[in-house]
């Protein structure tokens, strides 16, 4: 979904699948994208098609940002249609998107690029798991047990200053370099996303969004609208309305995904005692990635 109209109606969908150990997994989600109040065009694009959920926030003058985000979403959408979503196929799709961006030299330059942030359900193992991926400063949030956590880490100058202890989170909110990102899918070079693997837990809720939302809503605000709106479509519409009311300075894209799981999950008792981050192999075996277990 990529749109340049003033208002884009939220789309919603639902999927139920059986689990190998018994029980069912039901996912329900909704997505919306809007150009905001101050922008003439929408350079955001969104993919919400089981098992892959992605937000891309394009950047660059003229049509460059729109080309970058739309090309990336088109390539990732093809991965879904092929039915082979994995770290390897996602990275191949991103490499193809870079070539697509390069094929429009009249509309792109070194400042052209797009964030790529989201998650997919990995069903390759005995137990399904979520894999989040991130390039740039769009975000994935997880609401679990009434606690909202930012799963992804921004690739931005401000985040690097915070990580180095040179800037507080409060100071970062209004820093003049707040829009400067350090990693993007663009014409210069191929980049690899950061990955985080998470257990599939009943009751979890995810928010995937461009920074057009987080510029206008705090984490507390996101949590508030999730608490007030159990239905994903109502939640994305409420967040969008609030972001527009708060200024709508940028394009705004939001996905809300609800998880319902019935039946026993193998290793539940053991996993429930392990609340810390663990390390584990990436699904292509080439490196490691954090795994969050309940």
Automatic annotation (TrEMBL):
Gene3D superfamilies: PPM-type phosphatase domain. It comes from the Bacteria. Residues 266-294 are annotated as: Disordered. InterPro entries: PP2C, PPM-type-like_dom_sf, PPM-type_phosphatase-like_dom. Residues 275-285 have a biased composition (Basic and acidic residues). Transmembrane segments: none annotated. Residues 18-257, 33-259 form the PPM-type phosphatase domain. This is Protein phosphatase 2C domain-containing protein. It comes from Microbacterium limosum.
